[in-house]
From TrEMBL, chains A, B:
The keyword Chloroplast does not apply. Keywords: CBS domain, Chloride, Chloride channel, Ion channel, Ion transport, Membrane, Repeat, Transmembrane, Transmembrane helix, Transport, Voltage-gated channel. It is a multi-pass membrane protein. One of its GO terms (molecular function) is voltage-gated chloride channel activity. Gene3D superfamilies: CBS-domain (3.10.580.10), Clc chloride channel (1.10.3080.10). This is Chloride channel protein. The chain crosses the membrane at residues 91-112, 143-166, 186-212, 256-280, 286-306, 343-364, 463-485, 491-513, 520-545, 551-568. It is found in: Membrane. Belongs to the chloride channel (TC 2.A.49) family. It comes from Canna indica (Indian-shot). Its main location: membrane.
């Protein structure tokens, strides 16, 4: 083992430990210098850990270690051996399994999505039915206490699940899935416990009447299901286990989780094409045509499952699950030809939608930072915060309708007025018979039903303008304060809800001068808000089309989305990108930052480099593994084995641990060759386990006399890692790193005669915080 | 200049020319050995040119040179200088221009698409009106002669345009656009003359009643428009020229052409979302989120333009352009809940659709190979072939309806029967009043109207089963023989037409046992055929949804597409991939072939390598440029300038030509530095011109005394080309090459002490024909 700045001979452990101590000293002083440059827009983690290269992240209000994923194929001898011996039947097994898994992911996500809706419809329906029965009996206080009490109990239960069982399940989950698909694996974000809490926490949260959605959690749920199925459930099922070994690598896992997140969107919105596009536009960082097809297959399965289950429920077998279940808004208002004045109105709708969206993103960021201090204090304060917000929400949704006056029911109606059952456009509330309270129709309903009411066409005067104003302000503010509490909470529904109200306000105001339906304006308003916060275009457009089942409004939706996204982009980033950054997840952007052109790869490599000889002393390996957290080490052959120092390749920590566990050591420094290793190990012994599941250094039990023995690293060394020359611009190196999905990028010297490797670039070396920390003067070039 | 196997000293031109002669000898003997391995599935070019590495391609029946595109940023001194001096205002200009170009592409493609439809509707409408008027007067022979005569004249005119003006405009154009977006530029495929012929040839071809579509040509038209606008039209417009210089590189051109091809699909089908997905799934090889948005903007503009123009035409200002213009089939048949029996029928529909699609692809391939011998003989034989097919088509469409018996008009109809005007479901043909000929309704109509008739719902007994059988066989065969003649011809319409007939046959047969409408079966049949031939899934699905405006059939369409694609994939490749391969376009697949794992990069590099010194003699450069067709040369610094031979980087042919044209030579071998070059050149002097537009070697006028002078190559050398070690597996090198969109990939030696570069990999070195030519034993591993 060898720090390459040392000379060849001096390899004693003492000097190495000394070197390490000095590095640690340097680092701590480095971080202390960093302290002064804190600001409100920085990742939350910097304040907590003083670690600028973000080896840990905040996942669901907790700090946890993260790992980079590696999509490079490590071409070592074992891999080559495995490749040559791979039989036709194995390739067939792989293809069959790939499609079976896609099918299973679709089935499971479809069922979970349906179960989620069924539970919400029944719990929330029961709650609302009970409240309205009490209201009819004029027992208003009891009604409020019942309503608020059920909400608080549901909220507290969800928050407790989240806080004690799986903190990673809090929040939307889309930022975490997005980061995973970019190559960042944070501990437990896709664990079975997270899946469990995500499903039941989401049911509780939505039933508790919060202004939040089940769409984001469904995406996370889909990803968790995909991860779980890819692991084969548990080690107990030996039959599938042998087949599933093909999926024990980051590349196949990534594909499965892409399918899972698309399935999640498809299940949440009943939008199979929208799901594919969402995965493509927002979630995935890498994409290829073959994956498009597999994702499409998964979402098609979801659509079929949902359709069959809804068909089954039409028979009245599902309790209170009526037409309300699974949002699907048949707007189908015939669009009359729109005038120029309408177009101008729509342009303004888009512009202000963008502004509101940007403000929303800014405020979400600030509120999340504030909440993080509360959530830091532990599980009880998380639950307390959730209960506070729940009480606030209950007060709003029960209290504000008293401000609205009663409206007499319109004469020519197909539906009951006032509404008797659970859902419907005309809630009675405090009004005399034959009248309805339009604000209660929005507040005392599930969010899905409220959106359906807002989108409904041919109901121009159902909501008066003051009602819409009150509802807009309440929903916009409640949506802001709700995201960030410790329950699974999606952002789609709050954004659609406030956007639809905003659109309907505009539509109602324009009523006298426009031929367009206020329901159509509500759809356009929702599009404007979605464009302004999430900055998605094609997928939002297709999701809205599939929700409203009206293709003719496509050009208008497109126009609004383009305008609102453009406007909002001039203020800040999309809400998911913002959350990814705030959580400290080291996300690699698709494009290199401009200042990276002025740096070269050699400028940012982390020194000092720890490298191994081709045949290395066991003790040195163990020491290096113990002292560093590095996951890849260069292997260098030196004069007895080669003419001059020569880079053999890169060896991974996980492979080293497996090799050491095998204990095929030799007394002498001699090459044993690959044959020896093949006798001991099969190719899949080195397959990559999921995060936290692989061997750990503590699992090794190396005897003292073995520490002085040698082991040949050649067979497990990746002989051809991707390399760049130290003088390559950092921007070009970043493109290489990102496009190929690397975990380690070796930097080699430009001129001959120097040690054969300068350093290793990892994901953290490309992070703006790291680079700007090293070169503060670049801030001005930014 | 230096062949690296030579020793340092011997650099005389004689020895180099000797070397070259020996290479040429080797190559010719190599190609002669290749001759024996010909087969029917090989690229056509191999037979013609004996060039296995396909430096030329067949574009529209003519052989033409091709060039690889280069998406790597060549980081030489000039680029760095330019980057540092780039001002905020220039970045702003670039962004404004980017969006303006997207807008212009959308507008232009929308207008052209509308013009295309308008012309076809009027020409074909006039022809059909004239024919039916003559038929009503019982002048059957005159009617046939008029009908056939007009067809032949239109066909001959289109073929003449194609054969004499722009041979590249023949065929669909989608394979060429796909290859361009993969990085292959064949001469004149995006030229203004091609655009002209594509537009007018397509109008002629569609009006002539061929079984072909305008959809493929529209994609090519969109790409041509994008290319033309990106070039700024001509050098005359100096105002835009200075701004457009930012787009003089392959990367920005690629983005524009992606937008253009999406706009083409959007204009052809009025399917903006489908256009984006088509560009993503089928056309583009590289993709990123930002491009998704720009493409979406372009297609939105197309949709708005088309909508406005159709609105204008509703006023009756467009001649015969009625509801027939621009396919848009409002099926909107209410889907009754389907039974298990229906599902089984649909599964079989998908399976046989896949089989028919695979057979179609196989036969298209064989027929194209046969036609290529005819088309080879020159323009007159191309025109003759077209006229023959035209007469055959006329005979079928006028002759076959005589086989059908007359059907009495159904009683309860909203539309006229028999049809009086141009389009309509009930053509009178030879029948007495009050009757219609159902086969004539399909044949004597535009293809768009025939599809609309087949898709129409609630018309269960309009077509009898024998009619559908005759039409299916005729259309399937005519579609096959039509593709490949020298006119712009798309494959979408023939495939949809025969698929819809096939589906309607199944629907009619199942009529007694199924509740589903035969019109719905026609849509599903079209989906099955599209899946079976083109192998697209998501985009076809969305295009069909946007065409039929019925979202509820989505799960069924998905199911059919998945089945038919899976079935067809087990037989052969998609039709566009097949044509790309046959034309000899060196397309880089997204995944590496399995046998590439058994080879290393060093195995396939083309020897011998020609390299330059950092300061090189002008005469040697000129000679190397003259003797080789290489586009990149490594630059190596040698002992007077460095300690040991050291790779400086890569210099491009186009940059060398500009440098030589500048004539800043020195008498002595000395480094002049970058300053000298900056005085003479601006950054954009080295910007890449379009294919065939850059400087040529013949444009240089180097005097004899200048030949012995020296020029410093350092300022124009790309200092950090991407490199791989010679021992890296070819599969990994291919992934790097493809993902980064490279043109040259430098292979460096593994061990120190050897010349600093082993060779350069180009696109042709990764082609299966080249590799399997070098290593024939790999055929067995395939």
């Amino acid at each position: 083992m060898d720090h390459h700045h040392h000379e060849q001979g001096s390899k004693d452990i003492e000097s190495m430990e000394g070197a390490w101590r000095s590095i640690e000293r340097n680092e701590s002083s480095f971080y202390e210098n960093e302290k002064e440059s804190e600001s409100a827009r920085e990742p939350l983690l910097r304040k907590r850990t003083l670690n600028t290269t973000s080896q840990i992240a905040i996942v669901g209000a907790n700090v946890c270690p993260i790992e980079s994923l590696d999509y490079e194929i490590a071409e070592n001898d074992l891999f080559k051996q495995d490749w040559r011996s791979r039989k036709k039947v194995q390739i067939f097994q792989y293809i069959v399994l790939k499609w079976t898994l896609a099918l299973l992911i679709g089935l499971a996500t479809g069922f979970v999505g349906f179960f989620n809706n069924l539970a919400v419809e029944n719990i929330a329906g029961f709650k609302l039915l009970l409240t309205s029965t009490l209201m009819l009996e004029h027992r208003y206080i009891t009604a409020f206490l019942t309503y608020g009490g059920i909400n608080v109990v549901l909220a507290a239960a969800s928050a407790a699940l989240c806080a004690y069982v799986a903190p990673a399940a809090a929040g939307s989950g889309i930022p975490e899935v997005k980061a995973y698909l970019n190559g960042v694996d944070a501990y437990s974000i896709l664990a079975p416990s997270t899946l469990f809490v995500k499903i039941f926490g989401s049911i509780g949260g939505v039933s508790a009447g919060f202004v939040l959605g089940k769409e984001g959690p469904m995406v996370h749920t889909g990803a968790c299901i995909a991860n779980l199925l890819g692991q084969g459930g548990s080690r107990k099922y030996h039959l599938t286990w042998t087949w599933l070994r093909y999926f024990k690598n980051d590349r196949d896992r990534r594909d499965l989780i892409t399918c899972g997140s698309a399935a999640g969107v498809a299940a949440a919105f009943r939008a199979p094409v929208g799901g594919v596009l969402f995965a493509l536009e927002e979630a995935a960082s890498w994409w290829r045509s073959a994956l498009l097809w597999r994702t499409f297959f998964t979402t098609a399965v979801v659509a079929v499952v949902l359709r069959s289950l809804i068909q089954y429920c039409r028979g009245g077998n599902c309790g209170l699950f009526g037409k309300g279940g699974l949002i699907m808004f048949d707007v189908s208002s015939s669009i009359s030809t729109y005038s120029t004045a309408d177009l101008i109105a729509i342009v303004f709708l888009g512009i202000f939608g963008g502004v509101f969206g940007a403000i929303f993103n800014y405020l979400v960021d600030r509120i999340l930072r504030t909440y993080s201090f509360i959530n830091d204090k532990g599980a009880p304060s998380k639950i307390l915060l959730t209960i506070t917000i729940s009480i606030l929400t209950s007060c709003c949704s029960y209290g504000l309708p008293w401000l609205a006056s009663c409206t007499p029911c319109p004469a020519d109606l197909h539906e009951q007025c006032p509404t008797i059952g659970r859902s419907g456009n005309f809630k009675n509330f405090q009004c005399p018979p034959g009248h309805y309270n339009d604000l209660a129709s929005l507040f005392l309903n599930t969010n899905d039903d409220a959106i359906r009411n807002l989108f409904s066409g041919g109901t121009d005067n159902e909501f008066c303008i003051s009602t819409l104003f009150i509802f807009f302000i309440a929903v916009y503010c409640l949506g802001l304060v709700t995201y960030g509490i410790a329950i699974p909470s999606g952002l789609f529904i709050p954004v659609i809800l406030s956007g639809a109200t905003y659109g309907r306000i505009i539509g109602t105001l324009l009523g006298p001068v426009s031929d367009l339906d206020p329901g159509l304006f509500a759809v356009l308003g929702a599009a404007a808000f979605l464009g302004g916060t999430m900055r998605m275009t094609v997928s939002v457009c297709v999701i809205l089309l599939e929700l409203t089942n009206d293709l003719l409004m496509l050009p208008l939706v497109m126009l609004v989305l383009l305008i609102s996204k453009t406007v909002a982009d001039s203020f800040n980033k999309g809400v998911y990108d913002q959350i990814v950054k705030m959580k400290g997840l080291p996300f690699m952007e698709a494009h290199a930052e401009p200042y990276m052109r002025n740096l070269v790869a050699g400028d940012v490599v982390s020194a000092p480099l720890i490298s191994f000889s081709g045949v290395e002393k066991v003790g040195d390996i163990v020491l290096a593994l113990r002292l560093t957290g590095h996951n890849g080490f260069p292997v260098i052959d030196e004069p007895p084995f080669s003419d001059a120092p020569e880079l053999v390749g890169l060896v991974l920590r996980s492979h080293l641990l497996v090799l050491l566990k095998g204990k095929r050591f030799t007394k002498e420094r001699a090459r044993t060759g690959a044959g020896e290793v093949f006798q001991r190990f099969g190719a899949f012994d080195f397959a990559k386990a999921g995060l936290g599941k692989g061997l750990k250094l503590e699992d090794l039990n190396i005897l003292q006399e073995e520490m002085d023995m040698f082991v040949d690293l050649h067979p497990i060394t990746n002989r051809s890692p991707y390399t760049v020359v130290e003088t390559m611009s950092l921007a070009k190196a970043a493109v290489l790193f990102r496009e190929l999905g690397l975990r380690h990028l070796c930097v080699v010297p430009k001129t001959p005669g120097r040690p054969p490797i300068v350093g290793i670039l990892t994901r953290h070396d490309f992070m703006p915080e790291h680079i700007l920390g090293l070169f503060p003067h670049l801030h001005s070039h930014k």
